[in-house]
Known about the structure:
The chain is α/β, with parallel strands linked by helices and 306 residues long. It has two domains: 5-117 and 272-305, 3-Layer(aba) Sandwich (Rossmann fold); 123-260, 3-Layer(aba) Sandwich (Isopropylmalate Dehydrogenase). Helix content is 42%, strand content 17%. It is built from eleven helices and eleven strands. The strands form two sheets. It has a six-stranded mixed β-sheet with strand order 8-7-9-6-5-10. It has a five-stranded parallel β-sheet with strand order 3-2-1-4-11, with helices on both faces. Helix 1 (5-12) crosses helix 11, helix 2 (28-39) packs across helix 11 (285-305) and helix 4 packs parallel to helix 5. It is elongated. The model has no long low-confidence stretch (mean pLDDT 96).
Amino acid sequence: MSKSFDDLLKKINEFPTKTVAVAVAQDDQVLEAVEGARKNNIAKAILVGDEAKIKEIADSLKIDLSNYRVINVEDPQEAALTAVKLVHDGEADMYMKGLIDSKTFLKSILNKEVGLRTGNPLSHVCVFEIEGFDRLLFLTDVAFMPYPTLEDKKWIINYSVDVARACGIDCPKVAPLAAVEVVNEKMPVTVEAAELTRMNEEGEIKNCIVDGPLSMDLAIDPTAAVHKNATDRKIVGDADILLFPDIHAGNLVYKIIVRTTKFKNACILTGTKAPAILTSRSDSYETKMNSIALAAIVAEAQKKNQ
């Protein structure tokens, strides 16, 4: 079982090096990340974008472009389609956003001819290593799906379970979060959490343990189960996956973690034929590199499951 990003990086050494295709690669932070990934044997990269600008940035960062395949496409939309097609056609294993807006990046993923669409909803999974925790925490969805329906939440669980299992957690514990840990008909989130638990118990949601509704303290703090006389729950402070009721709750928790704890993290888009790395410019170099590593691990798991 992987309990840290160091464990995840060790897993990468167990399989052939993956390749990431970068859309509109003329971005200093992204080039730093892919260079770090190359130097640490995490992944190779194909850089698609304005070659002159890529070279200018690479020279300023002392990055040797002879280590990369560079495809010159100056128009951002065309560069995105070129990059995503590399993944679609099997020339690359994962897809990464460069200096391009998220809307255009997502549009390329959903392109019917060369994209990575599956016909299922897309979602977002974030993995955290937080000082003081004895395990990795998987948060979903904190950045993509605003108000997931019950059916959406089923997909989100399946995606996050696949990511956790790729990381070596064979039967992850999933906590559908709410303000309370009992079903209240006036709080629809609790009703949906209980329904997800039923689906899991009856085999409709597999390869995990779902226990909801759960308050955050019961999900992550073992002492809370004692204080609340809830030691008979399937999850007693040892949740692996935190399933948020909506994007507001998820995003608030995400931002509290990144501003108040010592952490490492990685984020990928899920529900695609291959992992997509959708980071923001505010994400650190380490987060971008870790996200490439996470995508490589998930790509290998998808390959094995084909």
